[in-house]
Amino acid sequence: MKILALDTSTMMATCAVLDENQVLGEFSLNQSETHSENLVPMVKEVLDNLHLRVEDIDIYAVATGPGSFTGLRIGVATVKAFAHIYKKPVIGISTLEALAYNLPYNKTVVPMIDARRDRVYTGIYTWEDGTTKTLMEPTVLDISLLLEILEKDYEEVLVNGNGSILHGDTIKNRLKDKVKFSTMGNNFCRAISVGELALNKYKNGDVDNFYTIVPEYLRESQAQRDLRKKEQI
């Protein structure tokens, strides 16, 4: 059973192909250009090197957010199109859960994605029965409030994601010896993690509908906020 997994929730675009028990290939690129220009060529290059076609894939998986509004729409739209055309299952995975899945067998993992204005998209996870377990549902918080929660309620935490890099000094100064930081290679949502989580969901009968799968933004886009302000004038 072959799985194609994608993530476009941050500047790092990543895709991977898994064959249930092994990784066949992965391609990740931190880029300033829009994912709309590079995502499909990236997928094609991975598949071509594996001598596969899009229709050879059994499950399409995608990180649904939170993260970049434009990036998420591109990734979700791509797998929706594949699933629609080739009549295959599609499965959405939380970007935060996939980030936490990068760091297995840790007691408390706190992924952070930059949400601007000193806020982060975050959740709190632990590892149980061979996979992630959610301790705090995905949300968007001021970094100061998140650190207050972690300082009060948790003895030791492992953090990752671009938000943990951006706010690294603040995190270290507040949590001190309570916090450990991820290695560089686990600070982005890897498509491999998205694919493994999707396989777990598929085995449990948890499959999304390509008509209804949507990005999980967690907050309004800037365009939506500007429009709402105009409507209130």
Layout of helices and strands:
Elements: E1 3-7, E2 12-18, E3 23-30, H1 35-49, E4 59-65, H2 69-86, E5 90-94, H3 95-101, E6 109-116, E7 119-128, E8 131-142, H4 143-153, E9 157-160, H5 162-166, H6 168-175, E10 179-181, H7 191-203, H8 222-232
Parallel strand pairs: 1-4, 4-5, 6-9, 9-10
Antiparallel strand pairs: 1-2, 2-3, 6-7, 7-8
Order of helices and strands: EEEHEHEHEEEHEHHEHH
Low-pLDDT stretches are 220-225
Largest sheet: 5 strands, mixed
Radius of gyration: 18 Å
Number of strands: 10
**Overall pLDDT level:** 92
The top-level CATH class of the largest domain is Alpha Beta
Broad structural category: alpha/beta
The span between the termini is 55 Å
Major sheet: arrangement of strands: 3-2-1-4-5
Question: What are the defining features of this structure?
Answer:
Nucleotidyltransferase, domain 5; five-stranded mixed sheet; 2 domains; 233 residues; alpha/beta; globular; 38% helix
What does this protein structure show overall?
- 38% of the residues lie in helices and 30% in strands.
- The protein contains 8 helices and 10 strands.
- By secondary structure, it is of the alpha/beta class.
- The strands form 2 sheets. It has a 5-stranded mixed β-sheet, sandwiched between helices.
- The model is unreliable at 220-225 (pLDDT under 50).
- The protein folds into 2 domains: 3-95 and 189-232, 2-Layer Sandwich (Nucleotidyltransferase, domain 5), CATH 3.30.420.40; 103-186, Nucleotidyltransferase, domain 5.
- The radius of gyration is 18 Å and the shape is globular.
